[in-house]
Amino acid sequence: xxxxxxxxxxxxxxxxxxxxxxxxxxxxxxxxxxxxxxxxxxxxxxxxxxxxxxxxxxxxxxxxxxxxxxxxxxxxxxxxxxxxxxxxxxxxxxxxxxxxxxxxxxxxxxxxxxxxxxxxxxxxxxxxxxxxxxxxxxxxxxxxxxxxxxxxxxxxxxxxxxxxxxxxxxxxxxxxxxxxxxxxxxxxxxxxxxxxxxxxxxxxxxxxxxxxxxxxxxxxxxxxxxxxx
Length: 229
Ligand code: DC
Prior knowledge:
By secondary structure, the protein is an alpha/beta fold. The protein is built from ten helices and eight strands. The structure holds 2'-deoxycytidine-5'-monophosphate.
């Protein structure tokens, strides 16, 4: 039987990953973080010292050479490059700086999508978060959610996550950085960030974390995807 797919898409810092993880835990599914795989590929390109602008076939070749892949772990999948890649390496500044450019390359997206589709087959269900999960990677997902939040709400969450001060100047800078990433992700030619026509939009600006998780679980129950549904 093909696995159940719950797709959660949305802009940077909309809370996709933490929400997807909690929803997956409640449903007894695994969490699959597609952004982490783009980061793994970017790490391989950075480690290999590839020149910019990045050349797609070279990036894919380095991902293969470093053995970038996803491996099942308790409740989710970890990125490996021969060996497990620590989260801190995936989120290092050098990776964050280049990942949007690498994620805009069509050949890289094909490579990543193939890995995501293959990985999703492991287990009875996955909650996948990203930018194009409901629109491109899993167009037949049983539930698609598009998470949004105001730029200020997202910037505030990002600063708190990093343990930084949420003063007006920091907030302004973070809001600008997020707007630049939103623009890069939404305006690229290949698989831009869009809300799939059949995705349920959920604005989380005024919701607590528990509330946003509950809303998605409610949608899953409505569709008969939860065992108690
Ligand atoms: O969610 P994140 O910040 O870890 O994502 C890293 C980058 O990868 C970000 O620039 C958007 C891109 N990405 C993408 O283009 N498509 C996805 N499905 C997931 C992430």
